[in-house]
Amino acid sequence: MDNRNARKISKSGVRTHRIQRVNLLRKRIYFEEEDRFVKIRVSARGLKTIKKYGLAYCCKKFNIDLSKKKYDAGYSPRKRKKKTEVETTTENNAVDAKQPQMYEEANKVMRNLNLN
After folding, report:
1. Which of 32, 42, 62, 85 ranks highest by number of CB atoms within 10 Å?
2. pTM for the full model?
3. Are residues 27 and 7 part of one domain?
4. How confident is the model over 92-106, as pLDDT tens digits?
């Protein structure tokens, strides 16, 4: 990964060893197929590859499983807002659906208690 054979040459011509490292970046990229963001540590060259072919293709080619929690970067603020709105409406619908069942059960109990 690192090039240990690199040299730095000063003005006087003295050659000293130095290490050349890969240009790695921590990047938050939108994963269109799953409609979410992922955080990946990727080289600058890898980033160009992702831009050219897409994230799904690169993950498949390099055997990266983005479903793991360490790659999760959450959703966009808009998605989060929509998600909370949807959750509140589904919760309200669930409560509304439970109430008739509760009333029916209460009516059954009252009929059983009626000693006519």
Report:
1. 42
2. 0.55
3. yes
4. 665 555 566 666 777
